[in-house]
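Structure tokens please, single chain.
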Amino acid sequence: MTPALAWLLTDLKHYRNTLIMITVSGCAVAFVTLMNKINGIGLVEETRVTVGRELGSVLGDPNDLALVLLFPFSFTISIVMTPGLSKKVRFVGFLAAIAIFSAIIATQSRGGLLGIMSAVGVLAWRRVQSKALLFIGGGIVMAILFVAAGISGRKSGGAAEEGLDASAQGRLYAWEAAFLMAVDNPISGVGINNFYFNYFFYSPIGMA
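Here you go.
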């Protein structure tokens, strides 16, 4: 996205139109996400919402869906916090931010919650003078989001699992495997789309 935004957008109206398109696209995905949640469509583990899971969609994983929604969420937050825009535009951005925020919460993704905190935190860092207040407030908001998303009620990574849950353990295995792949192949890596095939040769599961 960085080369696309840096090279293709050459005029002020390009950036304005891109901002509108990203916001509208995010709202469209958020709307489908919330409708699926309300109607119990494509739920994972009975509570985590997805989009197009039965079709093999890339949004069929709650974590991937949350990641996709975080991109337009960041833009809508920027719209709300940009003083130079009209009140009407900022109000529309506020409504869009609420819709996308609600959709991310519905995925019950811990990474989605961290993404929300990161997006808001970066902008808040520039506006809140007291950094101690920012960290304290951020911790309180994170706890509220954790409860609101119902993370403890998840079948994987919820309160029912003791110690390090399977979801987190799987990520640690994947990170360790990726690190070892990079050590063995520091220049070229293992090749595009070859991570899966090399995973069991580098992860603790495969080496055990």
